[in-house]
Amino acid sequence: MSLEAEEFNDMTTDEAQTTNGTVLPAEAMAAQVSRLLATPGLPPRAVATLRRADSAFGLLDALLRSGAPIPGCWRVDSDAENYKARYLTDVYDRLSEALREDGGAPHAFAALRSACQEWKALDAALRAGSPLPEPWQR
Q1: What range does the domain containing 66 cover?
Q2: What is the torsional sign of CA 36, 106, 117, 78?
Q3: Burial 49-59 (b: 16+ CB within 10 A, else e)
Q4: What are the start-end ranges of the H helices in 16-129?
Q5: How does pLDDT run across 27-80, given as a tens digit for each residue?
Q6: Which backbone phi and psi does 108 adopt, to 5 degrees?
Q7: Cα–Cα distance between 72 and 131 in angstroms, integer?
Q8: Smallest Cα–Cα separation from 49: which of 38, 64, 62, 63?
Q9: Torsion of the alpha carbons at 24, 9, 101 and 98, rounded to the nearest 10
Q10: Rounded Cα–Cα distance for residues 89 and 45 (Å)
């Protein structure tokens, strides 16, 4: 098993239980994204951290797009004003773009800092009762 696969396996098995290969809960993946982006770490580990954060966000994204339950800490208001949904969709888009950046450690470190800022904005807005970004709307 490669180092990346071992890190990803550690990430998923530490954060959520799976049953016969079923999907991981969205709440565990949101918590994992929060932990990975809370502090970007040192530049030499930036590439690996960025990959792990992208993988965790990718799982969260797939779960929420497929209708999985929304994390309990998010007080989503589907009746909120339309401009809030547009704002959160823009934040979601910037976060996705930052997590998918390629390059060496300096570039990955800058992308992690950007992703951290966007995740904090998205998570805080959803905890405060904003609507879901467009890709996750039900």
Answers
A1: 3-136
A2: negative
A3: bbbbbbbbbeb
A4: 26-38, 46-65, 82-99, 105-127
A5: 999 999 999 999 778 888 999 999 999 999 999 999 999 999 999 899 988 777
A6: -65, -40
A7: 14
A8: 38
A9: 40
A10: 29
